[in-house]
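@channel anyone free to eyeball this complex?
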Amino acid sequence: DAGVIQSPRHEVTEMGQEVTLRCKPISGHDYLFWYRQTMMRGLELLIYFNNNVPIDDSGMPEDRFSAKMPNASFSTLKIQPSEPRDSAVYFCASSLEVTEAFFGQGTRLTVV
Amino acid sequence: GQQVMQIPQYQHVQEGEDFTTYCNSSTTLSNIQWYKQRPGGHPVFLIQLVKSGEVKKQKRLTFQFGEAKKNSSLHITATQTTDVGTYFCAGAVAGNKLTFGGGTRVLVKP
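replying in thread with the prediction:
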């Protein structure tokens, strides 16, 4: 398996634009997580899914953030409208039941 | 909500020396996991501890889960330059929701 695949790897966008981050989890994994990493706040869990159903979205900072998982092999994290303070590295991770989480390479988002 | 704290935030270690990083949770955990993130990389799973008082070893790394399942430690012996990175603990209270600590950034002086 190629592991968790995220795209794009880097994204630079202007404030106010919509940003969509994509994730393909490892085949067969039933959990999918979206994390955000910044120097100030560390690694924060934004939302996680179990069998494509959102379980806990309490980490989603604002209504500007939304996440979907239409099927077992794809998830998106959308920010609309984006703001400079959204600049961070966004990681997607997947796991099989309550075991180790496999992280993707991350998407480095810069909002100018 | 649940909080996971790690100390120290930074650890400067002379190559060949030992060091320990500590993880404390505000709530009792069902399990704790440790991850390592190299500079510019992504977190990579190291180990999971589930039982009270559990101790696991991986070569020069020793992981321990406290008796009350609220704290954990990672001890590295004979530090090498390959140990450079940030070590995170992540605790789960229930289900599979992991709360990550702030991490300990390890710098090795040759």
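from a first look: The CA atoms of residues 11 and 65 of chain A lie 16 Å apart.
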